[in-house]
Design brief:
- The protein is mainly alpha-helical.
- Among the domains are: about 210 residues, no CATH class; about 80 residues, no CATH class.
- The chain is about 60% helix and about 5% strand.
- It is built from 20 helices and five strands.
- It has a five-stranded mixed sheet, covered by helices on one side.
- Strand 4 and strand 5 form a beta hairpin.
- The longest helix has about 30 residues.
Length: about 475
């Protein structure tokens, strides 16, 4: 199973690396060859993309498919043909099947088409985009049928989030929602290296006529709104300035649009003039969005913000002698972080004004490399501490190496529960991480039999013991 896991990681790297293909194809639609290559490199080494291959998660396929969908959306707008609309529909459907968060492509396609119809009078977009959406729907039909048969409804639990505003206090929901909009915007600002995000919003009056800018803008707004809505009506994860602020930052929901921010930002790298209104708005977003520092900003959820998480840890270690990575509520460290982030924003505006375009590109490249290295280091550290030393992981590896002659093992049903670190299985009778490296049939039993794994000490032949995990051989 360890070799299988290694093969899975290799395949993971290959799949996640595919994002450079739509990244390059999309870049060369707007940029010269040199900038297209630089854009592709920046997309490939961004910490949220470069490091995701360490995790066997849907994002490795979701990110490339999402960017491919955007590429075909742009091509279908420019060519307005049935062929590109067909491809757009198929890839959109596959993106949603890979991760339901891909449903954001529906409003992106719809709102972009609405803009073209109203603002540019391109009425044929109605026909071609309708074809795309119908094809996407047809691609999803098998999944809808499966959900109805297995879960009793067509989209599972995902539809419940749309009711968030009416299931809790409406005024409180508005405040939470608005606060998370600013926090999530600030998250994207930091994750994209600040400079490229800012370049997206120079010469707005000129860009409002540009189709790709509209696609990027609608994509940013859509992921921010949906991610913000996700944090309404869930548990309070951390004490903040707003005592009832629920939820937590999940950068991997947002960072799917990072390639669009990179490409669109590079298109405007020669436009270095920012109005006072933009600068003031960015400072306001920075001050309010700095609430993100109350949370734990580490992989896997916030790989693009790991550099902020490490900075916070170092600051608290120096000022509070805090050695733990667990987040705390401390006004002193928060105030220092706000001042640090404001200083970074002011310095960024100054650098943009004084540096040449090539120097700005070099600065962005260096930042992405350093940020990715920081994220990689955090992943390696976490792997050593919380994965390799995890008692369940060690137990699973022991089973695979020492119980080769057994084809079935039994987990004690009374050891099931919701605690990932303690319980051996979930309440729905699925193994926790103990089963990750076990290439055997796992059954659940109310009574000890054959090879039996439990959290309880029993009067049977004990084969293995590790941190209250016991393996017994129940002889007949």
């Amino acid at each position: 199973m360890i070799l299988v896991y290694l093969l899975m990681k290799i395949i993971n790297c290959l799949i996640s690396g595919l994002i450079i293909i739509p990244g390059y194809l999309l870049s060369k639609e707007f940029l010269n060859k040199k900038l297209s290559i630089i854009s592709t490199i920046l997309i490939g080494i961004h910490p949220a993309i470069f490091n995701f291959s360490n995790y066997i998660m849907a994002e490795n396929l979701y990110y490339p498919l999402f960017l491919t969908s955007i590429y075909f959306l742009y091509k279908s707008i420019k060519e307005n043909s049935y062929k590109t609309s067909l491809f757009l529909g198929i890839i959109t459907g596959l993106t949603i099947l890979t991760k339901f968060a891909g449903i954001i492509l529906i409003p992106i396609i719809g709102l972009t088409s609405l803009y073209l119809i109203i603002y540019k009078k391109q009425l044929r977009q109605i026909e071609t985009k309708a074809i795309s959406l119908i094809i996407a729907f047809l691609t999803l039909i098998p999944w809808f049928i499966r959900n109805k048969l297995v879960l009793g409804n067509f989209i599972g639990h995902y539809g419940e989030e749309s009711l968030n505003f009416i299931t809790v206090n409406f005024i409180k929901s508005i405040i939470i929602f608005s606060d998370w909009i600013i926090i999530n915007l600030f998250s994207l600002l930091l994750s994209s290296g600040i400079i490229l995000f800012l370049f997206n919003f120079t010469k707005i009056k000129t860009k409002i006529k540009d189709e790709f800018f509209i696609i990027t803008l609608i994509s940013i707004i859509t992921v921010v709104l949906i991610s913000s809505n996700h944090n309404i009506n869930i548990l309070i994860k951390q004490t903040t300035l707003i005592p009832w602020l629920s939820g937590r930052p999940i950068g991997r929901y947002l960072e799917v649009v990072i390639p669009l921010i990179i490409i669109n930002g590079l298109r405007s790298i020669d436009f270095k003039i920012f109005s006072k209104k933009i600068k003031t708005l960015i400072l306001v977003i920075t001050i309010i969005g700095s609430q993100i520092t109350f949370f734990q900003l580490f992989p896997v959820n916030n790989m693009g913000l790991t550099w902020i998480g490490i900075s916070k840890y170092l600051l608290e270690f120096l000022t509070l002698k805090k050695a733990s990575f667990e987040p705390i509520f401390n006004i002193t460290s928060f105030s220092l972080l706000v001042l640090l982030l404001i200083s970074i924003m002011m310095l960024t505006f100054k650098l943009i004004k004084n540096l040449t375009s090539n120097q700005i590109l070099a600065t962005i490249l260096i930042f992405f490399v350093i940020s990715s290295l920081i994220t990689s280091s955090a992943i390696i550290y976490n792997n050593k501490i919380n994965w390799e030393n995890n008692p369940q992981i060690q137990t699973g590896k022991w089973i695979e190496n020492n119980l080769k002659e057994y084809k079935v093992i039994n987990l004690d049903q009374e050891s099931c529960g919701k605690n990932l670190k303690v319980n051996l299985c979930t309440t729905s009778k699925m193994p926790q991480v103990i089963g990750f490296f076990v290439n055997k049939k796992i059954k659940f039993s109310n009574e000890p039999k054959e090879i039996f794994i439990t959290n309880k000490e029993l009067n049977y032949k004990k084969l293995y013991e590790k941190d209250k995990i016991y393996i017994y051989n129940i002889e007949n």
